[in-house]
Design brief:
By secondary structure, the protein is an all-alpha fold. It has one domain. It contains three helices and no strands. It is rod-shaped. One of its GO terms (molecular function) is DNA binding. It is found in: Nucleus.
């Protein structure tokens, strides 16, 4: 193969405009999209951690949940299943 390249002294046409792009990126600083992503991500993370902390606090301090009262009809049915006769029968 021949070692003499067509673009030996200058870059190919597709890369001629790339020099300006590299210089412009250094001077701009942070990407605004990245800042928005970090702020929104931070808020979501804070929300989730706060909810978890509140959940743990509620588990320790709140009394246990009260059970629903059982109706007399259901109590009678349960006693019959267990073989104990209901009073008054």
């Amino acid at each position: 193969m021949e070692d003499d390249f067509e673009f030996a002294d200058h870059p190919p046409p597709s890369f001629q405009n790339m020099g300006n792009v590299v210089k412009d990126v250094e001077a701009k600083g942070f990407n605004p999209g990245l800042i928005v992503l970090l702020v929104v991500g931070g808020l979501v993370l804070t929300f989730l951690i706060g909810n978890y902390v509140l959940y743990l606090y509620a588990q320790k301090t709140l009394p246990p949940k009260k059970k629903k009262p059982i109706s007399k009809k259901k109590m009678k049915r349960e006693r019959l299943k267990q073989g104990v006769s209901a009073p008054g029968e």
